[in-house]
Structure formats: structure tokens, C-alpha cells
Q: What sequence folds into this?
């Protein structure tokens, strides 16, 4: 039924997309049983880990259901939950997707920063300042600061007291983790990029601490506008290797 999967894109994403296409095209219909894990490993030429992750994504998307001792079956069509995890198929699309995520973050995080400037408590300010310092500490220790970067922006959202916003930004942050890692890797290539990011983060937090909503929104949006500009300046060689930055279990057993 399937052909082998190879190439630079995350294998689990490609397998999930291939299986989803079989379902959405009608070639696999409600009640159909997917090939077994062993059969999929043999047909696609990937590891069991890749198959399990791909099937897990289909399950999370409401396309399939695992039935104990019987296998994995296609579910009837229904309204699907938001799923931004599917990756892209070539390096050009990877760049486009990263930039699109930056645009969405600019809208969301600009609003979060504005609300934080009016709602954050002194204790929130301390937590945000600690989260910001953690980025430098992580980089100094040899890390890329991706998790710490996410934690800083999440701390801003949490200080708004808006649980829907926190959940949305947390979800967006998790599915865009690869893009954020790519963004930080690009910024780490040049000292002026890295210094600019530090200054932009500090400007956001300073405006929040000063209780200036307009300045906080402007600083947050400007930070992500500049992030997009820095990514646009990256050449083909960077984007050709960008997908290798997301280390996962695609090749593990």
C-alpha cells in the first residue's frame, strides 16, 4: 500500500501525513484497520518509534483509534481539533512555516505583553526576570536556550491571568518548538543577532515592569518582527541544514 519514506523532513510527520491522506482521500474509510506496526515498518522502511509517533498523532487528531488486542481502526469523519504538528515537505516550506508561526506569535504575544503590563504583580515581575536570566545561563552552559526562551514568553502569558491565552500560547509554543530552535540557531550565528535578541527581550520586560501597555505591545511585536527579518537574512545553506536542528527519535528503535 505504501512506499518507503526517506528525506530530510521528520519521518514521523511524513508517515502521519501519508496515513492521513489515505484516510481523508477515502482510500481508507471508517472501520478499516490500519496495517500492523510490523507491516508498516516493512512497507515504509522506518523504525517502530516513527510508526508509533505517527499513529499517536493520527489518534490525537481524531482520525484513528487503537483497540486493545485488535489493532488501530479508522474513525468516522468528524470535526478535527486544531493540529499544527504536521511538518513540511521541503526546505522552502520549512522556512515559510517558521515565518508563519512568527507572524502568529507576533499577534498573540503582543496582546499578552500588553495585558501583562496592566495585570502583572511584583511577584510576576520577579518570575519573568528570572526566566529571562535563565536564557543567558542556558547558553553559557552550552545549550541553545530554546526551552528557556519558551519559558520566558510563557511567564508573560501566565502573568495575564487569562487561562485561555496561557493554554493557546503553550500549545503554540510546543508545536513551534522546532521553529524556535531554528530561530535561535540563526540568531546564534552572529553576535549582533544574539545581542539584539537580549535587548529586545529586556525591552519587553522593562515595559511590563513599568506598567506601560502600549510600550509592552510594541516591544513584543517589534521583537518578533525583527526575528522574522533575521530569518529572512539566513541563506540557503542555513535552511538546508535547519531541519537537522530538531533532534528527535525518528531514527531510533
A:
Amino acid at each position: 500500500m505504501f512506499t518507503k519514506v526517506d528525506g530530510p523532513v521528520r519521518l514521523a510527520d511524513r508517515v502521519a501525513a501519508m496515513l492521513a491522506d489515505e484516510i481523508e482521500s477515502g482510500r481508507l474509510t471508517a472501520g478499516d484497520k490500519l496495517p500492523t506496526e510490523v507491516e508498516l515498518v516493512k512497507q515504509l522502511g522506518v523504525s517502530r518509534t516513527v510508526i508509533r509517533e505517527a499513529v499517536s498523532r493520527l489518534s490525537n487528531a481524531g482520525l484513528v483509534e487503537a483497540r486493545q488486542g485488535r489493532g488501530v481502526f479508522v474513525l468516522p469523519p468528524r470535526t478535527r481539533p486544531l493540529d499544527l504538528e504536521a511538518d513540511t515537505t521541503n526546505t522552502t516550506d520549512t522556512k515559510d512555516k517558521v515565518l508563519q508561526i512568527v507572524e502568529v506569535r507576533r499577534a498573540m504575544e503582543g496582546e499578552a505583553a500588553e495585558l501583562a503590563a496592566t495585570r502583572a504583580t511584583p511577584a510576576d515581575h520577579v518570575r519573568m526576570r528570572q526566566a529571562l536570566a535563565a536564557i543567558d545561563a542556558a547558553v553559557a552552559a552550552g545549550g541553545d536556550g530554546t526551552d528557556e526562551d519558551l519559558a520566558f514568553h510563557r511567564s508573560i502569558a501566565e502573568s495575564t491571568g487569562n487561562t485561555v491565552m496561557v493554554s493557546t500560547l503553550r500549545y503554540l509554543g510546543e508545536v513551534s518548538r522546532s521553529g524556535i530552535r531554528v530561530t535561535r540557531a540563526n540568531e546564534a550565528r552572529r553576535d549582533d543577532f544574539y545581542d539584539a535578541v537580549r535587548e529586545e527581550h529586556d525591552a519587553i520586560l522593562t515595559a511590563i515592569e513599568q506598567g506601560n501597555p502600549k510600550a509592552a505591545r510594541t516591544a513584543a511585536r517589534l521583537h518578533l518582527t525583527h526575528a522574522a527579518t533575521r530569518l529572512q537574512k539566513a541563506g540557503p545553506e542555513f535552511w538546508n541544514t535547519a531541519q537537522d536542528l530538531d533532534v528527535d527519535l525518528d531514527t531510533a528503535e
